[in-house]
Automatic annotation (TrEMBL):
<dbReference type="Pfam" id="PF00059">
    <property type="entry name" value="Lectin_C"/>
</dbReference>
<keyword id="KW-1015">Disulfide bond</keyword>
<dbReference type="InterPro" id="IPR016186">
    <property type="entry name" value="C-type_lectin-like/link_sf"/>
</dbReference>
<dbReference type="InterPro" id="IPR001304">
    <property type="entry name" value="C-type_lectin-like"/>
</dbReference>
<dbReference type="InterPro" id="IPR016187">
    <property type="entry name" value="CTDL_fold"/>
</dbReference>
<dbReference type="InterPro" id="IPR033989">
    <property type="entry name" value="CD209-like_CTLD"/>
</dbReference>
<dbReference type="InterPro" id="IPR018378">
    <property type="entry name" value="C-type_lectin_CS"/>
</dbReference>
<dbReference type="GO" id="GO:0030246">
    <property type="term" value="F:carbohydrate binding"/>
</dbReference>
<keyword id="KW-0430">Lectin</keyword>
<protein>
    <recommendedName>
        <fullName>C-type lectin domain-containing protein</fullName>
    </recommendedName>
</protein>
<feature type="domain" description="C-type lectin">
    <location>
        <begin position="56"/>
        <end position="171"/>
    </location>
</feature>
<dbReference type="InterPro" id="IPR050111">
    <property type="entry name" value="C-type_lectin/snaclec_domain"/>
</dbReference>
Length: 176
């Protein structure tokens, strides 16, 4: 089980909705502060947390400690029951930047140049490309695979040559 402790400071005590998959416990102290602990059971083995997986907002993430090509990185994720990560919010982008590595993500335009799709087939609707990216050029070679990259101007996306070797990040969504 994964537990979260929420601190709700208010004069009117909020009612916690029942009927979810979690167990809620509420404890009130003398000054009107309500401590709420939510515990959720996931259909994923507890072994994930022991094997280097990190939990964030309904997903488990695995950051590699070695380097591989984009395709071999994806193959590794698939062998773990996951896939390369799909970034669909600023919060997720900010969470991933804490790893401070150049990492393959699950985004490519290999099927059709200029049409960037996630590994699940969806089109990109929110992006964090660096200025001037994607530019599809690395000394005459096409750049068809996306990577998270930490540069002087910040943390964003770059299109890279798919046969370069980088770290990668897998994502495994928690079943609702």
């Amino acid at each position: 089980a994964v537990c979260f402790n929420l601190l709700d400071i208010c004069s009117n005590k909020r009612k916690i909705k029942r009927g979810g998959t979690g167990k809620e416990r509420m404890k009130e102290n003398h000054n009107g502060t309500v401590n709420v602990t939510l515990c959720f059971s996931f259909s994923l083995p507890d072994q994930l947390l022991e094997d280097g997986w990190v939990y964030f907002r309904s997903s488990f993430y695995y950051v590699s400690s070695t380097n591989k090509t984009w395709q071999k990185s994806r193959d590794d994720c698939l062998s773990r029951g996951a896939d390369l990560t799909i970034i669909d919010s600023r919060e997720e982008q900010d969470f991933l930047r804490r790893f401070s590595k150049v990492m393959w993500i699950g985004l490519t335009d290999d099927a059709q140049e200029g049409t960037w799709r996630w590994v699940d087939g969806t089109l990109v609707n929110t992006s964090y490309w660096f200025k001037g990216e994607p530019n599809n050029d690395y000394y005459g070679k096409e750049e068809d695979c996306a990577q998270l990259n930490n540069r002087v101007e910040g943390y964003g996306w770059n299109d890279g040559f798919c046969d370069f070797q980088h770290h990668w990040i897998c994502e495994k969504k928690v079943a609702p």
